[in-house]
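re: ur question from yesterday

yeah so i grabbed the chain u mentioned. its 255 aa long if i counted rite. heres the sequnce exactly as i have it in my notes:
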Amino acid sequence: MRQLGAFIVGIIVGFLGGLFGKGGSAIATPLLSLIGFPGFIAVASPLPATIPGTLIASAEYWESRLLDWQIVWWSVAVGVPATVLGSILTKYTGARPLLIVTGIMVLGFGISFLVWPKEDKKRVAAPGSQAAENYPSYWRVRLVLIASAVGLISGLLANAGGFLLAPAYARFLKQPLKKSFACSLAVAAVLALPGTVVHAYLGHISWTVAGLVALGSAPLSYVGAKIAIRTHASKLERLYGIVLTVLGAYFLYQL
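ran it thru and got these structure tokens back, copy pasting raw so excuse formatting
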């Protein structure tokens, strides 16, 4: 039954990942833990599992011309070494602290989207239109800080960082929400690779669980991305906040 549960988790995280521009490992971790998988298996196994779905959803956003390659490449260049460092440090932290931090961060970002919505008063570009490059002052400095912090945390939590990158791009780089989703997916697909290698070396990944999650997530990622591109950003933001708040609160309650 746990194997069936892992497949269902893949379906859920694939759809939500494509819908909200994230790899989905941050959501898969609490769900796998809740259905009975032990700590490090729940933390690390979703990381390689979400790579195929992340790439599929990212390609869909790319076709809609929502990717900003400057943001993507700067994030990758800084985030990859930070992710490797964070992954190595996990052997000193233990599994339970990682699960607690995951739940707190999921809850915190969910509340932030509900309490401080970004897109309510903004006009959202039509699907398929190229978002104008509009960066705040010192945007490269901001981007380096974002990528460093997210890379380190992603390595520690064994996730691809999409659930942190998307809101960080929207809040700190002042980017439209759909553009933030698109960039976070592309970066998350790359950041997942070094973390996967390190956690596999440390023996934290169950490849059976990873395969089941990947099997469920890949096709639904495409569906989620299709729906997101055609949905008003303010509706996505509110739904994102509700899903993350409920999931984070329930997960912390169960720990």
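noticed a couple things. Residues 2-254 form one domain. also The CA atoms of residues 136 and 173 lie 6 Å apart.
anyway ttyl
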